[in-house]
Amino acid sequence: MNHGTYGCLLLLTAAGVVRAASPPGMVLIPAGVYVPVLRDQADAGRVPVAAFYLDAQPVTNGEFLGFVRANPRWRRSQVPPLFAETDYLARWAGDLEPGPQAPGDAPVVEVSWFAARAYARWAGKRLPTIAEWERAAAAGRQGDTGRLEAGFTAAVLGWYATPTPAVLPAAGSGRSNFFGARGLLDLVWEWVDDFNSALVNGDSRGAGGAGFFCGGSAASNRDPADYPAFMRLGFRSSLHANYTVANLGFRCAEDLALRAAAAP
Amino acid sequence: MVPIALLTLLLPSVRAAGGCCAAAAAPAVRSDRSTYQLGSAWTDDAGRPLKLAELRGRPVVLAMFFTSCGYACPRIVSDMTQVRDMLPPAVRARARFVLVSFDDQRDTVPALHAYRGLHELPADGWVLLRGSPDDIRELAAVLGVQYKRDALGMFEHSNLITVLNAEGEIVHQRAGLEGGLAEVGRAVVAVNSR
Q1: A199 and B158 in contact by Cβ < 8 A?
Q2: Domain limits at B40?
Q3: Which of A88, A203, A225, B34 has CA atoms 20 to 30 A from the CA of A64?
């Protein structure tokens, strides 16, 4: 076998590993770009996002139950206030009992960033970054930029305006997008790893906007029509890491390289 | 060949003698609101490992920074120095001033050490720390610090000085770069007396 053939086989094998080995319950988000809603002076405006795996749907109550069974310090009665405020898993019937308000197949909510992160680590994964999440969520039905598709932005605004039901529907019931990821926009808000990188001062009535932030100045807005992205930015900026919110859940991500390395 | 039973008898005495495995036990964290519940592993500017729980027992004034920061961070360090200078000597001797870097890539141990020299931060009062990106993100989240790395590898970040009591609980924070230093000093004195 000459070097050329060997090289081709290696490439095919690597591609095969990537194509054939999406981890169970995850979809491949191919490499692309994320265009932030607010662009800072130092940013080019287009952030490259490497390919990664993303959970096809948000983490469920049933899955989170497995996590707290295995990790007692994350049970509702034991979690320190530093890591989760008092409404942590408030709708659950007990430490190890999601109960009727938290169906096993519904997205888990009322979890803090610390809890979401700990779950992801326990599952051998991580939280997606803002860039990764937004890149995945930007997709419409036909391609990776939904807001170019007729009715897409209006639909998202409609979902965001709809009150969250007291009992959430199944995590798999959300709309599937071009990448096969479901419910990114029509189920619950989702934690991201760098939620505290938004650099927006929620209380701009405070003394002096200058001096609160070093370096960033919210310069140009990318697209005034993408109001959903603004809403997400605003929402993330309002969060503290130990907050729990009735319609805030999460899903996990995983690096491609790890999965390829683990493949036989 | 030494019988297993004899080996078992020998082992406890090796431990008691304080040999290889007598690592200093980290002070137990007593409050469920303590920042020191973070188990993250940091390194100081002398290359020594440090867990946050080792800061327990004395007042701490803490800020996040990076050595390449041109404007805000030197102001923060200057503000912390002002606070330290205004403390009564007995309090100043106990309070620790901690700077934690955002910049896991550029702020190596030598870079931190050079920064200490540049800003004349005495060894007995100041602790400079570096850590992993995940742990930096987590500590910032606990403190309420926002930051992001920009396209040039610099950091945009909120400016925050935090006072922790001896248990590691956040008791006071001063946001921005204007004023509020007297209040920071008062907060340090208040937690020192407990």
Answers
A1: yes
A2: 33-192
A3: B34
